[in-house]
Amino acid sequence: EDKVVQSPLSLVVHEGDTVTLNCSYEVTNFRSLLWYKQEKKAPTFLFMLTSSGIEKKSGRLSSILDKKELFSILNITATQTGDSAIYLCAVGESTGTASKLTFGTGTRLQVTL
Amino acid sequence: DAGVIQSPRHEVTEMGQEVTLRCKPISGHDYLFWYRQTMMRGLELLIYFNNNVPIDDSGMPEDRFSAKMPNASFSTLKIQPSEPRDSAVYFCASSPDRGVSTDTQYFGPGTRLTVL
Predict the structure, then answer these.
(1) Which one of A34, B86, B90, B109 is most buried, by most CB atoms within 10 A?
(2) How far is CA A21 from CA A1, A34, A75, A101, A103, in A?
(3) Reduced to 3 states, what is the DSSP secondary structure of residue A35?
(4) How far from the centroid of its chain's Cα atoms is residue A11's Cα?
(5) How far apart are CA A91 and CA A5, in angstroms?
């Protein structure tokens, strides 16, 4: 069965800290890995990664994929209280007609003052 | 452009009642997905459509759940009869049909369903 495992499950840091969130996966026909941020409402898209070793960056957030070791990390530098959220990792796999996403259970990040 | 629209945002019903959740995908998106999110199981794919045709409904928990997409701008997820264990947040998401970009799904605000 396909699996997406995120760690840690939850994390509490102080504002200004740097955090690294992990996502490992086992899927049959890997196509992409996506990171989403979920605050109180819907998951919002952060990054999509398809190639190993190429860092995607947006402001204080960055992510990289290792297709050999089957994992990805999401880094957040100089964390702010607004970064508090659940971060979801999802893996897309080719199914012939479309790509299904399998989500991990998420990492709950809390940034305190 | 409006994002994915879902209604109602909250639904409280009694066990045994029929529940209908509604979704309007982003205009021009060819894929529509229905998910359920609970604390215990996280975000689970229930069913998805491509060009209004159901492609994979293997995630639908049982026959009490059904989904339709009568046209490109509207889909429903129906639960009949509802049970307390169906209480969850139900998300609808859509994505365009553009190769790997299809994987980038855009989520609606969700419907929080409570079955008493």
Answers:
(1) A34
(2) 23, 13, 6, 19, 15
(3) strand
(4) 14
(5) 10
CA distances from B46 to A24, A92, B14, B33 (A): 23, 15, 22, 8
Which of A32, A88, A98 lies at the smallest CB-CB distance from B31? A98
Q: Are B75 and B92 in contact (CB under 8 A)?
A: yes
- Which one-letter amino acid corresponds to residue B101? S
A with B: how many residue pairs have Cβ under 8 Å apart? 56
Q: What is the pLDDT of residue A100?
A: 78
**Residue B59, helix vs strand vs coil:** coil
SS3 label, residue B105: coil
Task: Return per-residue pLDDT of chain B as tens, 116 residues.
Answer: 689 999 999 999 999 999 999 999 999 999 999 999 998 888 999 999 999 999 989 899 889 999 999 999 999 999 999 999 999 999 999 998 777 677 889 999 999 999 99
Does A58 contact chain B (CB < 8 Å)? no
Gyration radius of chain A's alpha carbons: 14
